[in-house]
Amino acid sequence: MASRDPVRVEIHGHTLIDDYAWLRNREDPRTAAYLAAENAYAEAAMAPTSRARERLVAELRGYVPVEDRGAPTIDGPWAYLWLERRDREYPTLLRRAIVDGQMVGAEQVVADFQAMAAGHDYFAVGAEEVCPDGRRIALAIDTRGDERMSVLVRDIATGAEVDRFGGDVSGELAWAADCTTLFYARVDGSNRAHELWRREVGRADSDVRVLDEPDPMFALSVEASRSEAFVIVTAASQVTTEVRVIPAGDPNASPQLIEPRQAGVKYGVAHAGDRFYVVNNRNDREFRVDVAPVASPSAASWRPFFVPPGDGDVTTVEPFARHVAIGGRQRGLPTVWITDLSGREAHDVAMPDAAYELRLGPQPEVSSDKVRLEYSTLAAPDTSYDYDPTTRELVVVDRDEVPGHDPGAYVVERLGAKARDGTEIPISLVRHRARDGSGPLLLRGYGAYGAEYDAAFVDVDLPLLTRDVAVAIAHVRGGGEFGRRWYEGGKLRVKHNSFDDFIACAEALVAQGLTAPEQLAISGGSAGGLLVAAATNRRPDLFGAVVAHVPFVDVINTMRDASLPLTATEWEEWGDPRNPDAFADMLAYSPYENVRAAPYPAMLITGGWNDPRVGYWEPAKWTARLRAVTTGTRPILLRIEMEGGHQGATGRTGALRERAFELAFLFDYWRIDTEGAKP
Fold first, then answer.
1. Per the residue annotation, which of 221, 526, 554, 585 is the catalytic one?
2. What is the model's pTM?
3. Are residues 388 and 416 in the same domain?
């Protein structure tokens, strides 16, 4: 068996000692046994909360409607709906015929995920793509949690299986116009989508490699344009993209390059009529929309179409026959602009709340006169609107109903904190109207990859809110809340800004009398797990409890090992520790290297045995080191989902049980009775 001796690494004049490196060896049976013992220890420590957890599972399930079909999405002659039922683990995709704009006839089952998941401990769907004529559906399915998927193609009318292949496919698929040719990407040993393939479904010998991406820092993605005229293939690193298109009516054609990659320039294309609409940052740090003729789409032909006002930034564009919808950011909040085909007559869709999530919803019909919008706040569940660009009227298509929840009982606020360098950091917060003064508060954050962390409704937070726990989001640098400048202000050499911002937000919440350090809990997942871990190392006195989901905490060891999934593609985000400056930056914050003798907060740490993004050994090693050096007595618990990956357990019950465990951990720390809740 492999040695459990510490591993010593000499790098740039520093000696790194890894006492728990042996945990990375998943082939050693002692590793699985160790994790099983950790799970048993966590369960034993939480045994006094077992009844509370069952009550919480029942409470969380009670927030799920008995039955909900959601907002219909019109695509050609069909309206597609998602059926969710309280007594089922997975949803069902249905459709009904559309005649003269109305749904008619019986519902038809397009895909029953409950039936497909039978017999699998883990089940997730990466893509569900109906072919243009509506005859077939292709699904990318993950039954391990490792995100190496298989593809299932079915005839919708009969339910018959047309094809099944893969095991090494990414989670994206695109049909050609013939409804026979399917494009997909294969992943290599590091889970990088490195090859584009096409296949005649039903023919096992028909696969043809269309494109290869040799650069380990780039990965391929594939999608059909909303117009269904093109298959769009994007090669992307963290900061650079390159797009090719294939005519959907000629799937054997060679991919046409839009514009060669240029370091630091990202662009993406959408299609309608005789134009490509190009979201890009070619002439500025922030993004705008240009247009180019389909006949000559290279950058030499790009012409300005829409530049967002003020500090705005564009994230996506959806062209229609008579108008264009543009998603983006302004003043740190999500924004949707609507413009005519000239790009000159633009207006934004105003929303009333202090903090919210607003996004362009599914609207496959390019000919539609309406724009689908999805909106929620920290207090109010999702509402689907159809927006009329001419009358500027918002019409409710569907509003999620959460049994027993009254959005009016809560207050949503936009607060602020002053970072160490003087930058104002926004905080979104929701609290019960009856909450008076300081009390328990859960603060979350992410701050990486330029990803926005918007103030969306989270139904599984209701057990917190009904028990007078406030919930807040720290919109730290490294995210995309204020566009690319916000992202670049919290990555690589200035990654420390993310941690400083988070600490500043926590201090501001205490200073404003909303909580106290012993009442303040923090939570983050993946890169957000890194955020809360680094903040905890720096200020263990500021937090009473920490929940870190699949936390990226072994930064140096992971980023110097290009054999691990996704490492090479991440160097532009975190740096390459083979570079002395990058190594010094990482050494200053990497949570595993910066654990120190201090009274650490109560901690719940999770991981996934099959996680391809954050290896299970990262949270396991970090937990072991924390326990070895903490001078405090609060519990430090580790739970590894042995049948799951980065997203944790799948299925409604599994997800609710995971959430109930986390809630029980927090309520136990706060000494909150799970039977007590405000109306």
1. 526
2. 0.97
3. no
